[in-house]
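Entry 14. Ran structure prediction on the chain below.
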Amino acid sequence: MTGFRAVGDTGTPLRVIQVGAGGMGTAWLRTVAAAPEVELVGIVDLDLDAARAGAEAAGDASIPVGTSLTALAASTGAEAVLDITVPVAHHPVTIEALTAGLPVLGEKPAAQDVAEALSLAAAAEVTGELFMVSQSRRYNDQLVAFKQHLALLGGVGSLSTAFAKAPHFGGFREDMDDVLLLDMAIHPFDSARYLLDREPVSVYCESYNPSWSWYRGDAAAAAVFTFEDDIRYVYDGSWCAPGFETSWNGAWRASGASGTALWSGDDDPTSDVDGAPGAPSAAASVGVEIAGSLSAFVHALRSGDAPDGEVHGNVMSLAMVEASIASTRSGQRVQLDDVLSDAHALAVGREARADVRQVLSGWTSVRSALGTPIGARS
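Output, structure tokens:
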């Protein structure tokens, strides 16, 4: 990726507007209100009543609201945008913000498909603005500690996640196609990339919907990914599995030449290395979920250092989801490079902005453009 424009540290909170004041939006508004490094100066929503309710949830009913991101940003002097809309709106909202010269922190996924995510990566290059995707479950000190344990295993050969929950969300999720893979599996898929420091090569996946499921789309899936260096990552998940539920983070196991590491998703991880308890060095705290993600975004804009979740580095996590869905549709193992190639062609063909299309057309290798090439790893 190319660099992005840093805002710099003025000694005052970063002025942000939030787009989206629904259920997840309310959680973000409360988090933003509690964060000393940012100041919420506006809320955008097509439903002004929802925006006003969001202002009250943030603790200040006088916060300006509106239906136009560009207009409200200009009138409030906003320095950045939080995009907490539904996935179908991620691309147009992020494009509007980047075009207005505003960096964006957006909820996952980056966009509703990989082609749109590639368009947003190219748009970030054209505008020179930061677009960071909030993979909030990366901001977990136990996940970081689990990675420290993996480093003791003498080279990881296999990694697995068991995920079993039974939430009744109501609303759009219960009517989504591929709801588990699209809305939840991206979190462990992204965490697997972080833990392994490797990129996915291929996947075989089967998704299904148990007879008792209250979701319209498939709420369960099992996937086997091959990563670089022939490492296997196995995901077995369900969103309609009542009883003995796992953590929202899933239950993890990693095996290597010298032992095994375990993480329940809610407790401190452990490892058995050559028959003795593993004791890795402690790592610095990364914060907690969306609050940690918000803090990382502000730090990136102040320092100019690329954060975890920067769009170029995040696209491959969404590609894992898209490849899994392609596999369950075809019944065949799917190569990630095929998914990237097809998405690239689609992105070029439907891109409305000439400058963004020019950048996309110049990508002879999508992996290289994203900074995630397949290669030898130490």
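The longest strand covers residues 156-164. Will compare against last week's run tomorrow.
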